[in-house]
Specification:
Blueprint (H helix, E strand, L loop, with lengths): L1 E10 L4 H11 L3 E9 L5 E10 L4 H9 L3 E8 L9
């Protein structure tokens, strides 16, 4: 299972986080970790989400980019831990 970090920038709206999480679930990704912060002026927010799935991350990132109020989505593949062999 591949694990990816998504960095999402969006306009501050109460429903943005709900839309991001719903889209993530509908596209078959599991949220492993999440962090959200708002800008000092409360006009924008930054969401960092770690997701995992067997599906290509582009299936999720392209749909997130289409969400209303989302301004930018970046994806990063996380390093997989090395498997130990006996």
């Amino acid at each position: 299972m591949n694990q990816h970090n998504l960095q999402i920038e969006a306009q501050f709206r109460p429903e943005v986080l709900e839309r991001v999480l719903r889209m993530t679930r509908h596209r078959g990704f599991r949220v492993d970790d999440m962090e959200m912060s708002t800008a000092a002026d409360c006009q924008s927010l930054s969401i960092r989400v770690t997701v995992s799935s067997e599906r290509p991350i582009q299936l999720l990132s392209r749909q997130l980019e289409k969400l209303m109020n989302v301004t930018r989505v970046e994806t990063h593949l996380m390093e997989q831990p090395l498997k130990q062999s006996a």
